[in-house]
Amino acid sequence: MESYALLIAATLNAGTVLAIASLGLLINEKAGIVNLGAEGMMLCAAIAGFATVVHTGSDVMGFLAGMGAGALMAAIFGGLVIWLNTNQYATGLALSLFGAGFSAFAGISYVQEKIPERPSFAVPYLSDIPLLGSALFRQHPLVYLTVAFALALIWWLYRTRSGLILRSVGESPESAHALGYPVRLIRLGAVVLGGALCGLAGAYISVIYTPLWVEGMVAGKGWIALALTTFATWRPARVLLGAYLFGGVTMLQFHLQGIGVEVPSQFLTMLPYVATIVVLALISRNPRWIRINMPASIGKPFYPGS
């Protein structure tokens, strides 16, 4: 039973990375912007966060550095696609490729570096509950904050005026512009916030999840986060559920190896990506369901003068 408790704990840890990044990308797409640069932003944020912790010893500073790196890259992306009307998909791919190359270059001197020992976290009293305590209540505080943020995002998007404005920009930017809302600035704000969250996810990987730096350590999590927004049909609660589902699939490979299941390691490693493809294939069988939930103007440029 203890092994299953460890599997649940590892699932929450792995799912948190995907949840943070996916919620950021969801905010982007609710405003009508598709950012395929998540992988590159997360990589740059991972090295920024790790390097900051190496020099300062502060996890908080590392998280802030990661968020800053993600927000900066997202702001550049936003300037290109929102004001210069470059193609969102091509610009996002370019950002991802740039992030992969730049992080590898910037991280050369940090490959052998070590950061201070991570403190252990536990919720008083609850962490002492047999099995359940070790599974649920000995996580990093950011795990619980991510759940709280997802709940707050649901309330904000569907219960507040500003959330309604953001969704209206993603549905019909022309109508929002006609009502006097600064569509470009709203989209830029959404893109920067989404980038900051992707940056936080990247920093979490290098500071908490696997406290080290190696080239390409994000290992496709940015692409899975992008797929999750579609899997969740742009609903924050489903994003959270999907993130933990994919986190569980990722951790299952190590659990199976630990209990002696004789399956080729290459097959286990590809499980998360196979699961992503299968889920997207199943969802695509019902295009009407996607159309109902998808922001109507997602991926489409907006020209204020037209």
From TrEMBL:
Annotated compartments: Cell membrane
Cellular component aspect of the GO annotation: plasma membrane
Gene Ontology molecular function: any one: transmembrane transporter activity
Family annotation (Pfam families): BPD_transp_2 (PF02653)
Database matches in InterPro entries: ABC_BtuC-like, ABC_transp_permease
Key word Transmembrane helix present: yes
Transmembrane segments: 6-26, 33-54, 60-84, 91-111, 141-158, 185-206, 212-232, 239-259, 265-284
Keywords, in A-Z order: Cell membrane, Membrane, Transmembrane, Transmembrane helix
Membrane-topology annotation of the record: Multi-pass membrane protein
Domain of life according to the entry: Bacteria
Name under which the protein is recorded: ABC transporter permease
Biological source species: Rhodoferax saidenbachensis
